[in-house]
Amino acid sequence: MSIANMLRTKYRHCTNQRFTATEGYRNNFYSKLGIRQNTFNTLLKLLENQHKSFYNIIETGTSRSGMENITGDGASTYIFDTFVNYYDGSVTSIDIDSIAVLKVNSTTSEKTNVICNDSLKELKNINSEIDCFYIDSYDVDMLNPLPAAEHALKEFQAIEDKLNSKTIIMIDDTPNSEEYLPPWIEESLNKLGKTKMDIKWPNGKGMLLVPYLEKNGYTKLSHAYQAIFVKESI
Ligand SMILES: C[S@@+](CC[C@H](N)C(=O)[O-])C[C@H]1O[C@@H](n2cnc3c(N)ncnc32)[C@H](O)[C@@H]1O
Questions:
Q1: Cβ-based neighbours of 172, under 8 Å, separated by 6 or more
Q2: Mutate to test the pocket of ligand 1, among 29, 59, 95, 114 (most ligand atoms within 8 A of CB)
Q3: Which protein residues are within 6 Å of ligand 1, measured from CB?
Q4: Res 8: pLDDT
Q5: Cα angle value 219/223/228 (rounded, 5°)
Q6: Are the CB atoms for 34 and 182 separated by under 8 Å?
Q7: What average pLDDT score do residues 199-220 get?
């Protein structure tokens, strides 16, 4: 049985209890999310506040490590899968790595579909309404963030005309400042004989997308290690 199905069976019909307040979410995700803890919580609460009967969530970059690296990677696909099994909805996750795609498809529920393709090609095929767009493909090198930043900007531009005024947009791996650098980045810098002083700011996957959103009328709701935007001010 998939992790999502186990959680769904256990926590289904917790009427009037919000997903973010459930034991399943608190124990399996929230307590392990580390530097992403507050932003994921904010994102899920924003979705909950929309009181929809069906949520469409699109993400780029699937949870390649399964549930084994929640703190490092985020386990977004499993969080979203559990969310749509609680409220109803669908998750479309796009990843270029066929092994990751097989792994996540076989350990999530039927409400989640992981598609193997380059995100820039696949995003053009999305036709559904989008409640949440999560941008987390293309690993960022904080010493050379431009390739990942350009990819994130192109991903957003590939889907921008299909977003509505309430779509919640979250970008991963975009520290707002040195204060939000996670320990594993400092460790990998140390291995290269570098320190956080070698990192230039702004940085991260959203280095180009954050200013693009700000310039184009999106409202920034939160920015720590991840950044959350919406077109309409809430
Ligand atoms: C950081 S991981 C995603 C982590 C996941 N969101 C989570 O929270 O567990 C990045 C993923 O993006 C995928 N990726 C890299 N380039 C891509 C591209 N051009 N199109 C789609 N996926 C890509 C990688 O294969 C990898 O699985």
A1: 36, 61, 74, 76, 134, 135, 136, 205, 225, 226
A2: 95
A3: 60-64, 73-76, 94-97, 100, 118-119, 136-139
A4: 55
A5: 50
A6: yes
A7: 97
Residue 5 pLDDT greater than 80, yes or no: no
pTM of the model: 0.94
Cis status of the peptide bond prior to 202, with omega within 30 of 0: yes
Domains, the chain, in order of start with CATH, read 3-230 (3.40.50.150)
- Which tokens belong to 228? 């959350």
* Sequence-ordered list of residues with C-beta below 8 angstroms from that of 74, at least 6 positions apart, any chain: 33, 36, 40, 63, 136, 172
| Tokens linked to 125 | 């095929």
Element (H, E) at 55: strand 55-60
